[in-house]
UniProtKB/TrEMBL annotation:
Pfam families: FA_desaturase (PF00487)
PANTHER family on file: ACYL-COA DELTA-9-DESATURASE, DESB, FATTY ACID DESATURASE 2
Alphabetical list of CDD domains matching this protein: Delta6-FADS-like
InterPro entries, per the entry: FA_desaturase_dom (IPR005804), Fatty_acid_desaturase (IPR012171)
Name of the featured protein: Linoleoyl-CoA desaturase
Class in the EC hierarchy, top level: oxidoreductase
């Protein structure tokens, strides 16, 4: 995708940009400590108490105000657990605390997808090969054509419908992403390999479905359907919010996609530049940033995935200054503006289109 607002850099400039961002990362990590620990413990409590209160209200949800408030509180709990707690903990942002419940390698989150699959598809594949076609499966999640550089097929004509379904069922899209079902259908992946991956996922799916749609509704006795419907809507709220925030962070108008050739002799500076050009930020209040898991600062998250996300807001000031120094576009905007660009991409690239010329990372 063309990024006309960013200029090509010389190899020396790329190296200096990388050194400045490395230094910023190390200064921030050296300052991480008790304030960050207090913050994530407060997030854990917020997740726990909003869930408890939300579920309690759903138990008396036969009264409409209680059902609405209970569903909203449970939805907020699931959003916080998914984005500000689970996602960030699994990046290892709080491993330094040496608390088993906050260990990034063992944390299991409250969605149907397993954390082990997420650590592979997201922490490794997406953050290593960000926006590289054929290597980063987060580009369209195997369903959507969001860049003109992606090959068009008639299947994409219905992608506004596929996008709507993915938004509603986002946790399921995340869950099956690593199964790579397309490879199975094309014969590039054996059924034995699929079955090996399916077994832990099946166990996780069973646990989540029993918890939300049987265990808690049964506890409500005669209000079974009231609790069941509240849990269903809370999961939908979480799915829609997560879809919107993640897509706004990756698929706005100025976000770029890259060919595999960018990996040839890629330095740390080049890697930083790729993260910067493939990401988008969202402006908003402190509460908005918390509810987004601070992925409203997607640029800073892609640059520094292991830095506690609560630091991204302050980091964004220095990152923006570095961008201005090196003539790089710092892609940020309101939620309405950025999501509008995402929706445009979904409809525009459902139709055939020619690839646009990508701005070079290096000057000639």
């Amino acid at each position: 995708m063309t990024s006309s607002l960013s200029r090509a850099l010389s190899s020396e400039e790329v190296a200096r940009l990388g050194e400045e961002l490395d230094a910023l990362k190390q200064r921030t990590l050296a300052d991480v400590g008790e304030a960050d620990a207090r913050y994530i413990r407060r997030v854990v409590k917020a997740v726990r108490y909003t869930e408890l209160l939300g579920r309690a209200l759903l138990f008396v949800g036969i009264f409409p105000p209680a059902w609405v408030l209970g569903t909203l509180l449970l939805g907020v709990s699931k959003i916080l657990e998914n984005m500000e707690l689970g996602h960030n903990v699994m990046h290892g942002q709080y491993d330094w605390m040496n608390e088993p419940s906050l260990n990034g390698k063992t944390y299991e989150w409250d969605i149907v997808g397993t954390s082990d699959m997420w650590r592979k598809t997201h922490n490794y594949e997406h953050h290593t090969y960000t926006n590289i076609r054929g290597m980063d499966n987060d580009i369209g999640y195997g369903l959507l054509r969001l860049f003109p550089e992606q090959r068009w097929r008639p299947f994409y004509l219905l992608q506004p419908l596929w996008a709507a379904l993915l938004a509603l069922l986002f946790q399921w899209g995340v869950a099956i992403q690593d199964l790579e079902l397309g490879k199975v259908f094309s014969g590039r992946k054996s059924k034995a390999e699929l079955n090996a991956q399916w077994q832990p996922l099946k166990k996780k799916i069973r646990y989540q479905l029993l918890k939300d749609y049987l265990f808690f509704p049964l506890l409500a006795g005669p209000f079974f359907l009231t609790v069941l419907s509240g849990n269903l809507v809370a999961n939908l709220i979480r799915n829609l919010w997560t879809f919107m925030i993640i897509f706004c962070g990756h698929f706005t108008a100025k976000a770029e996609v890259f060919p595999r050739s960018v990996l040839d002799n890629e330095t740390q500076g080049h890697w930083y530049l790729r993260q910067l050009r493939g990401s988008s930020n969202l402006r908003g209040s402190k509460l908005f940033h918390i509810l987004s898991g601070n992925l409203s600062h997607q640029i800073e998250h892609h640059l520094f995935p292991t830095v506690p996300a609560r630091r991204y807001r302050e980091l964004s000031v220095e990152v923006k200054a570095i961008c201005e120094k090196y003539g790089q576009h710092y892609n940020t905007g309101s939620l309405l503006s950025q999501f509008g660009q995402v929706v445009y991409r979904i409809f525009r690239h459902a139709l055939p289109s020619r690839p646009e010329r990508t701005t070079a990372l290096l000057s000639a």
